[in-house]
Amino acid sequence: MKTQQDFLAVVRQSLQLPTTSERDPGEFPDLMLSAFSVSPAAESTDNLLDILQESCKRHNLTLHLVEDEEQAANLLVTLINEADPEFHPSKHVILHRHPLLTGLKLWKRLEDDPVSVHICMEGDDDCREKHEISSIGITVPECVVASHGTIIQQTGIGQPRSTSLLPSQHIAITREENIVSTLELGYQKVKEMGWDNVVFISGPSKTADIEAQLVFGAHGPRKMDLIIIR
């Protein structure tokens, strides 16, 4: 097989379809059309949030808009207190080591609540265990793609991938200026910053492998929130 069309011809032959014609999009289940539909690119920054809101709905991603860091911290405390631990009798939260999260001082705001707050620290031999017992992981993505409802997150020391993968709930928090309109601009930012290791996340973990029935939490968090500080 030399080209993409050669490959698709083999697939069509296996499905007993004409090998030289493309499938009518109307043949696809509504679920698949919804999953792969893309909002138009924003023409100005004024409608980025509107486009992001619609994109988040498609991925079952809850978007919160706040005016400042104080509102963001209060919202985080509310989300943490409302969550129920899934795999551990006590409530644990783990955070990326990031200046934005450090400034919110969640450990101080939650000191009177039955919540243990952990921070990803270099050389912490218990970091993996802390991830395994945490019901919420909080990260700070460097970029949010409005057209796809996707966050782009750098990973590395103090910011492991496991924070957005192992806990049952993933909360991402970032500033409005980190929103870009299209995925192409997101890739451009990754290239300009020279990041070696990034992850692209579009809502909570989901799969529709079995009978096209959408299930959340199959390979990661079953719930995801995105907080934008305006």
Task: Describe this structure as you would to a colleague.
The structure is a single chain. By secondary structure, the chain is an alpha/beta fold. It has a single domain, classed as NagB/RpiA/CoA transferase-like (Rossmann fold, 3-Layer(aba) Sandwich). Helices cover 31% and strands 22% of the residues. It has helices at residues 4-14, 30-36, 48-58, 69-82, 99-104, 106-109, 127-133, 183-193, and strands at residues 62-66, 91-95, 115-119, 136-139, 143-145, 150-154, 169-175, 179-180, 198-201, 206-207, 215-216, 223-229. The strands form three sheets. A six-stranded parallel β-sheet has the order 1-12-7-4-2-3, with helices on both faces. A four-stranded mixed β-sheet has the order 8-5-6-9. A two-stranded antiparallel ribbon has the order 10-11. The model has no long low-confidence stretch (mean pLDDT 87).
Rounded to the nearest angstrom, the distance between the terminal CA atoms is 50 Å
Gross morphology: globular
The CATH homologous superfamily is termed NagB/RpiA/CoA transferase-like
Q: How many domains?
A: 1
| CATH third-level topology | Rossmann fold
Radius of gyration: 20 Å
